[in-house]
Write a structure and sequence with these properties.
By secondary structure, this protein is mostly helical. It has one domain (38-337). It has eleven helices and four strands. It has helices at residues 12-28, 35-63, 84-100, 106-124, 136-141, 152-187, 201-223, 228-257, 262-288, 297-319, 370-375, and strands at residues 29-30, 33-34, 323-326, 331-334. Helix 8 packs parallel to helix 10 (297-319). The strands form two sheets. The chain has a two-stranded antiparallel ribbon with strand order 1-2. The chain has a two-stranded antiparallel sheet with strand order 3-4. The protein is globular. A hairpin with a 4-residue loop joins strand 3 and strand 4 (331-334).
Length: 376
Amino acid sequence: MRLTDPIFKGTSAFDRSKKVNEKFAETEFYGGHDVAAIKTYRYLRLGMLAAVVALSYSLLEERYAHGVHCWLGSISSYYYTPVHSVFVGVMVAIGLALIVIKGSTAVEDVCLSLAGVMAPIVAFVPTSDNPSDSCRSQMQTVGHYLPPASDVRNAANSISNDIHAYLVAGSVIIGVVVAATAQLIRSRRPGAKTTMDEYSWGTFGTLAGAALLVGAGWALVLAGYKWVLQAHGKAAAAMFVLLALAAIANGALGLWKKYTRVGYAVAYLCIGAAMLGFGGWFLYDQLSNRSAFHGHLVLVIEVIELSLFAAFWALQTVERWNHIVLVRGAQILPAGNAPPPADDGPPPAGDVPPPAREAPPSPGDVPPPPGDLIRT
């Protein structure tokens, strides 16, 4: 028995308990939605931007360090500098955030998740050392560059260990999700609502894509490690292409299904198209003129792509700050405007039940006076 039960209605204890419960409900829910879920969504998005800022600052500090007055040929080359830990940590954090963030459509969800799968590979498999880099010798002189040639065996063992750990983790998670989904399907009763109703085609598409990537990874690992030397560049290219497709899908489907404002949708389309356009220009220029930008072509394209992605993510964070994503139908609603329950219309005249007649309370159900309630 609780103080909010009808038997205590009219007592001071009932009124106080009701106010406490109402206050608790206001604290835990906002507009009918779980505040914890909304805040977690915000923190993930802000954390992604913070990771990009941290990497940017780390690169700038290394660029203007004592005795260093130049840029390396790419952001990935800073793997061999004091930026190493920040670079690896940021790429892993970005990958995790991209995987767990739910996209508003199946296409966006799959693209973000698969891009997140690529990000840790960029971190775990470094780019090859470039002895011809003009800044490399200068950074070595001041002790800010440690090429893999100093301990080739340790570098190869590190890559092997990281890739094995990544593949094992992916295999375990995919296995757990598949087993849990199969159990839900097998135990589901007809007409019963379960957590299966919360899944979308994006969820299953992401699961299938991740399973294929993990399977391909194991096959390549078992076949040999020669592919690892080229995995960095391919994973980075795939990640940026998938992020561009996510931005384009967000804008195009947002305009089509009218769940994104026109201004935001157009901005997403422009950002996605720019990411793909600059990527195509990079491939063409790299094949025709490898000395472009004084050997900093890769650095330039990486900065452009990261900046465009950060702009897309920041705009989307602003747009969805107080919004939730409804998986079915891919509709976004403000957090303060939960969809009203479906109105099936008035019941037929013959189905209207008679008004319930309230039975008189029995002597045992009469509430005690306030004074007696306090004493008990």
